[in-house]
Amino acid sequence: MRPQFPAPLTVGFDQALTAGSTGALRVFSSERGGLRSCGASPALASGTTARFAPTPYPWMPGETVAYTVTTGAAGSGGNLAQGRVGQFTAAVAGTGTGQFTAEMTLNVKGRPSCVAAADVDGDLNLLTTGGAPEALPCS
User: According to the lineage, what is the superkingdom (predicted)?
Assistant: First the structure.
């Protein structure tokens, strides 16, 4: 099970926000399929902050989260003159050290002409390109 990071994204303003500012904070997820601050878990505006809590699905370790504050954010002085954008990467838990078990053999389709390790879906993947069938020793 992966560690989860439920800490909210909070953006502060120098004036109290109006009730209509609720949709001004838009949050996008690289791991959860795009726009998150809509539907069942919208961003909320209260006092001088706009806040998005990543529920029911917390940030994933290493996930890039982008956010936009639109000119729809308004206080007593009117709407925000210019929108703002930003991003952050969710923290990764652990010690940063990995352990590998003893060598194992993976059966792959074709004789690999190229092998690479990559993270394409949130875990470690072994990518190969094909040729004739053969087993691939990994260590």
Answer: Bacteria
| Contact partners, residue 9, CB within 8 Å, separation at least 6 | 25, 27, 51, 52, 54, 65, 67
Tokens of 93: 């838990």
Q: What is the mean pLDDT of the chain?
A: 78
Residue 45's nearest CA partner among 91, 86, 81, 9 is 9
HSE at residue 3, side-chain half, CA atoms within 13 A, is 10
**pLDDT tens per residue, range 59-90:** 888 888 999 999 999 998 999 999 999 998 88
pLDDT of residue 30: 85
